[in-house]
Amino acid sequence: MLDILIHLVLMVLMPPLLFGVINRTKASFAGRTGPPLLQPYFDLFRLFRKGSIFSRTTTWVFRAGPIVTLAATLTAALLIPCGNHSPLLSFNGDMILFVYLLALGRFFTTVAALDTGSSFEGMGAAREVTYSCLAEPVIFIALLVLSRLSGSLSLVGILTHSSTALWMTSGAALVMLVVGLFFVILSENCRIPFDDPNTHLELTMIHEVMVLDHSGPAFGMILYASALKLYILGAFFLHLLLPLRVAGSLQDWLVFVMSMILLAVAIGVVESSMARYRLVRVPQMLLSASVLAAFALMLVVR
Amino acid sequence: MSYELMLKTFGNGTRVPLNDVPEVALEVFLQGIVELTGLGWRILSYFGVPEREGAALWCVLAGSHRRLGAFHSWCEGALPSITAACPEAHLFEREIAEQCGLAVEGHPWLKPVREQDFAGNRADDDQCLTAVSDFYRLAGEEAHEVAVGPVHAGIIEPGHFRFQCHGEKVFHLEIALGYQHRGIERALVGGPHPATMVQMETIAGDTTIGHATAYAMIREGLTGVEPPPRAQVVRGIALELERLANHCGDLGALAGDVGFLPTMSFCGRIRGDFLNMTADICGSRFGRGLIRPGGVAFGCTPQQAEALSRRLDEVQHDYTGAVNLLWASPSVMARFERTGRISSDDALSLNLVGPAARACGIARDVRRDHPFGIYLTSAPPLVLEAGGDVLARARLRWNESIASLDFIRERLSTLPDYDDLLTPGAPAGAEMLSVALLEGWRGEICHVALTDKNGAFLHYKIKDPSFHNWSALAMSLRNGQISDFPLCNKSFNLSYCGFDL
């Protein structure tokens, strides 16, 4: 019972903190103090108190976009085990649902962008869909590999199966998965080198340009959903990279929170140390992530 | 040769009686411009002064051996276009059509430069609607058009960009400006007025020293006043500090546009250091109130000079570190290389100026070609880069920064003994022509003044380097990626208000 409560509380409250940590890391690399750690929460609070403006050319699709995206992402978050704890929902084959919930969220963000009829947003939607087409296979192949290794078909089974012992036996495959999935985390969460979450340049944006027309609470929902997406993909990723299991339940939660923060710091370091790829390079990088995952699959099925 | 003899030649910043400037028939005038640009002369300014039924057309050209040349003609009704033979004239002709109401015949793409229509009208509520006009269109199912601006997502000046794309590939970019047209040239007629100096400093806020010095040179040329040597040194230092601040800011902004945070943050801070040095001299970070006709309003004491060169050493250390990070990052180099390329042929035919031209390997620097002020005695070495891409323009900015740093240090160590900073003014010559040419940080700034029989301005023509270089930005995007536009734009960093006037 306590675990479920902690799971829910963390799931709702922690995601924006990750953005705060990333921003502070980037700021310290740049020699600045940076915004307060809790700034993303303040921003969300500010957005939710604002009114909304809707363009006359948009339809209900535009308004439904952020709501469906947030709902789908929240549901996906219920399926992911955090650290050494079971999620709220779990059944055989839930991994397919997980991937498609994320895809549903993306679909609605994209059609909401197309609904505005703006040439920018159309461009952003085209880019987003192209790149996620290339990122999705990585997640699917990773799930295949893990399911083969664990012999399970549910997210809990395949993710909590990963351990230090597994790293000793199938380390090579796991290393390739970890690298491939890290690429996907960066690209799916529009981080440098794939996208620049802080840019104000419409023409270079991928994800940000699709939400230019959203304002107030709708934009708050989008920001929150993107933080949540980073949180669940991060939790997924950490099962592979740091399968740390301590005895007690509370200690395990502590380990989970600390490793999530470490992941955010790592993303901040990557963002501070390199430039964005040219847009035509992004598909190449995602394809190489797929290739890595495919090699991992070959290693485990042989 | 005959056309060269037709010109009245004179030096940068001097005055010539209007009667000495030859008036030629319109056909000879136009043929002369075409022939002279083929002989290595460049159009500095080509404008019309509306009079009665038509307009007097003036053309000022720059040649070799520190020579400037001018001649004029008269046109009523229709002006035949020379753009086909001399592409660099294309924007001048559009400007003449707009300002003089002449019908320019045979121009390939005649539309207003800054106003809504050729009558110089604006819409009822004074809206600027240059974005609502004809644009080149790409036809076809798969082609799409992207319109950016005049309101942008960032806090920048207004300008409208129209892209014709196929997927991510840009086939054509057309730029519509004029949103900040304030009518500076019109306000100068009958001047100088008490507010003129301040208006000159705000033609383009980031080129305050450049435009203010050009105006001061015009006034000095017309009155025959020579600024004291110490004032010339201070002007030179201020001009190079302005170059340093802007080049440094640009390198930081280029890094920011590719998402490379370290250099972006450091250069942003270092730019502030350079601006503060200007503030130490005159109290304004942008150098407002420093340049005055006849000299400068603020000097530089030996103590100030010593402190300034010490700070320059410190800042150079930080600046070097920040910029070396750029060259050492493969991810940054991958973005800069072969992005936004301009061939040197295009650069020559569009008459590019300043760093944009020098990054195409074109040796063109007013400080060397038509020296003025302190540059008559010593000029920083000419910096050139080949390639014409974003990387060339970035490297050029860095190498010019180093040259400017050395130049300032040298000037500070050999400051002339303390003496007057300002030579008292004299009445301006009547019926004179004066041309001031100056290398601002963006490139060649050209001011041309004609005076009437009382010595007041009959006509005043301002040309910011952006006037030529906006066309280069449009060219650099051809066959490029639309997502590279912000990077290309930043690598030119042109002025909207300097163009709009």
Describe the structure.
- The complex is a heterodimer of chains A (302) and B (501).
- With 302 residues, chain A is mainly α.
- Chain A has one domain.
- Chain A has helices spanning 2-13, 15-29, 39-49, 60-79, 94-115, 119-150, 155-161, 164-188, 216-241, 249-273, 282-301.
- The longest helix of chain A has 32 residues, at 119-150.
- The model of chain A has no long low-confidence stretch (mean pLDDT 90).
- Chain B is α+β, with helices and mostly antiparallel strands.
- Chain B folds into two domains: 2-105; 193-465, Cytochrome-c3 Hydrogenase, chain B (Orthogonal Bundle).
- Chain B is 40% helix and 17% strand.
- Chain B has 17 helices and 15 strands.
- In chain B, α9 runs antiparallel to α14.
- The two termini of chain B are 36 Å apart.
- Chain A binds chain B through residues 26, 29-32, 119-120, 122-123, 126, 192-193, 196, 198-204, 212, 271-281, and chain B through 144-148, 152-154, 167-168, 255, 257-262, 264-266, 269, 329, 331-332, 334-335, 339, 481-487.
Describe the structure using short key phrases:
B: alpha+beta; 2 domains; 4-stranded antiparallel β-sheet; 17 helices
The coarse overall form of chain B would be globular
* Structural domains of chain B: how many: 2
Q: State the fourth-level CATH superfamily of the largest domain in chain B.
A: Cytochrome-c3 Hydrogenase, chain B
Give the ordered list of helices and strands of chain A. Answer: HHHHHHHHHHH
Query: What count of structural domains of chain A?
Result: 1
Q: Describe the oligomeric state of these chains in a short phrase.
A: heterodimer
Largest sheet of chain B, order of strands side by side? Answer: 1-5-4-3
Kindly state the percentage of residues in helix of chain B. Answer: 40-55%
CATH third-level topology of the largest domain in chain B: Cytochrome-c3 Hydrogenase, chain B
Q: Give the termini distance of chain B in whole angstroms.
A: 36 Å
How would a textbook summarize the main sheet of chain B? 4 strands, antiparallel
Structural class of chain A: mainly alpha
